[in-house]
Specification:
This protein is of the alpha/beta class and 513 residues long. The protein folds into two domains: 126 residues, Chitobiase, domain 2, CATH 3.30.379; 316 residues, TIM Barrel (Alpha-Beta Barrel), CATH 3.20.20. The chain has 15 helices and 16 strands. An eight-stranded parallel beta barrel has the order 8-9-11-12-13-14-15-16, surrounded by seven helices. Strands 1-7-5-6-4-2-3 form a seven-stranded mixed sheet. Helix 7 packs parallel to helix 8. The longest helix is centred in the first third of the chain and has 18 residues. The radius of gyration is 24 Å and the shape is elongated. The two termini are 42 Å apart. The protein binds ligand TNX. Ligand TNX binds next to loops. Keywords: Glycosidase, Hydrolase, Signal. One of its GO terms (cellular component) is membrane. It catalyses: Hydrolysis of terminal non-reducing N-acetyl-D-hexosamine residues in N-acetyl-beta-D-hexosaminides. It comes from Umezawaea endophytica.
Length: 513
């Protein structure tokens, strides 16, 4: 026994079994396999420690993260040390079933503690998210609460269906500060989302400092929809965001939308316009009126510079080049543009992601198409999938978190229809688009466009409870897909959001307690 732990001698009677407030079956997203042990539970106590895999700094970091999650509400010290004793909370990188892969984990709750086993830190992180949901809801409170902190006994075996489970935040239409984005990162990480796509530039604003073209941010970032003051991230701030997301198991995908959705850039540099005249800044919500100048060489020097600086800020594999709604660019020009820009992404060592329209230009098969249509059929996307391109699914009528829930929703838009939680949940990404089989699907992403959203509470109202629905479609096996069961598990999240101060929409479709 380690000095300082509760001395429970081997062979001694088990600690008293408290009745847990939660069930092993209420986890969102649903795990692959759950095996409850009725009558068994573990209670986290004041002298508990968090032990992590000896010799692994990555496991240690997850342990520190777990401690930060659990300290405020419990008020316990929860020291983190390396060790393997199955007491308290133990995070191990040995002994996991190979099936769990890089992101999966096994979690075992005995009377003496919780052991999480994984093959990589990402799996330990996912296991910690599960543990969090097994503790009473008030664990999410930021101030000290009274226990007991009881976890139901049993085991979980879990790993994701798709390797890409994403959320997008549009920081261009309305600017969101680094702290606001970090807040969203924390919220989505709880549902095992592993990519955050940031829509960094659009007609209404340019939000990332580009040192070789400084007016993009200082002028192009100076407003937002409705005429507010906008803002931008310095490269230092952006790096801190990327690092923070990384500490939550999340890879950031930066998007610069091109060749349309570029008024902020065109307004910042007159020479980027075909007629050499800079348009005014724009604070409305129309789309499709702007285009980079396809025939000017400076356009490609500009894109090259932007992608180079962005690639240098991006540890992840993808740069998103937009490509949607280029209604002011002719089809041949659109192809000319993509044929020149996609190799620049490669030149800077990254893979291209784009809104699905760009697959018309026959990009290299390493490029990923993000489907945002409202139909279950798209010939160009099916043809791209047949050629070998992977597809990231964000069907607007299912996955767009900016769609109104119903006719009474004040925030949001409705062009893709109303989307209540059940609509968001009731589809199968592996069999959604005709000609795009599960093997061609990279995963799912829930985009949140912000024409009507201005602060974190707006973001939360639209994302919760639908973001967890999309996250579950990306993580959980299709065999667990069941609306009634999901709606009950979702109901158990309500008190957690309340305790955490997350502003969710209490949809009448969910049986909140
Ligand atoms: C369409 S979806 C857009 C965005 C809007 C969004 C609003 C897509 C790739 N483009 O420019 O913000 O609808 O829902």
């Amino acid at each position: 026994l380690l000095a300082g732990t509760t001395a429970v001698a081997v062979g001694a009677a088990s600690p008293a079994q408290a009745t847990p407030e939660t069930s092993l079956r209420q986890i969102v997203p649903a795990p692959v396999k759950v095996t409850p042990r009725p009558g068994v539970s573990y209670s986290l106590t004041a002298n508990a420690r968090i032990q992590t895999q000896p010799g692994s700094p990555d496991a240690r970091k997850v342990g520190e993260y777990a401690a930060e999650l659990l300290r405020p509400a419990t008020g316990y010290r929860l020291p983190v040390s390396s060790g393997v004793t199955p007491r308290g909370v133990t995070l191990l990188l040995v002994g996991a079933d190979p099936k769990v892969g890089k992101e999966g984990y096994q979690l075992d709750v005995t009377p003496w503690g919780v052991v999480i086993r994984a093959r990589a830190a990402a799996g330990l992180f996912a296991g910690v998210q599960t543990l969090r949901q097994l503790l009473p809801a008030k664990i999410e409170a930021k101030t000290k609460q009274s226990g007991p902190w009881t976890v139901p006994g049993g085991s979980v075996l879990d790993y994701p269906r798709f390797g890409h489970r994403g959320a997008m935040l549009d920081v261009a239409r309305h600017f969101f500060s680094v702290d606001e984005v970090k807040r969203y990162v924390d919220q989505i990480a709880a549902y095992k989302v592993n990519y955050l796509h940031l829509h960094l530039a659009d007609d209404q604003g340019w939000r990332i400092e580009i040192k070789s073209w400084p007016r993009l941010a200082t002028y192009g970032g100076s407003i937002e929809v409705g005429g507010g003051k906008g803002g931008y991230y310095t490269q230092e701030q952006y790096k801190s965001l990327v690092t923070y997301a990384g500490s939550r198991g999340i890879t950031v995908i930066p998007e610069i939308d091109m060749p349309g959705h570029t008024n902020a850039a065109l307004a910042s540099y007159a020479e980027l316009n075909c007629d050499g005249v800079a348009p005014p800044l724009y604070d409305g919500t129309e789309v499709g009126f702007s285009s980079l100048c396809i025939d000017k060489p400076i356009t490609y020097r500009f894109v090259d510079d932007v992608l180079r600086e962005l690639a240098a800020l991006t540890p992840g594999p993808f740069l998103h080049i937009g490509g949607d709604e280029a209604h002011s660019t002719t089809e041949p020009d659109f192809k000319t543009f993509m044929d020149k820009v996609l190799p620049l992404v490669k030149k800077h060592g990254k893979l291209a992601l784009g809104w699905h329209e760009f697959v018309k230009t026959n990009p290299a098969t390493s490029a990923v198409a993000q489907y945002w249509g409202t139909d279950t059929e798209d010939a160009d996307v099916a043809a791209a999938a047949a050629r070998g391109n992977k597809v990231l699914l964000s069907p607007a009528s299912k996955a767009y978190l900016d769609m109104k829930y119903d006719e009474n929703t004040e925030l949001g838009l409705d062009w893709a229809g109303y989307t209540d939680v059940q609509d968001a949940y009731d589809w199968n990404p592996g069999a959604y688009l005709k000609g795009v089989p599960e093997s061609a699907v990279r995963g799912v992403e829930a985009p949140l466009w912000t024409e009507t959203l201005d602060e974190s509470s707006d973001v939360e109202q639209m994302a919760f409870p639908r973001l967890p629905a999309i996250a579950e479609l990306g993580w959980s096996p299709q065999s667990t897909h069941d609306w009634t069961d999901f709606s009950k598990r979702l109901a158990a999240q309500g008190p957690r959001w309340q305790a955490a101060g997350v502003n969710y929409y209490a949809s009448p479709q969910v049986p909140w307690g």
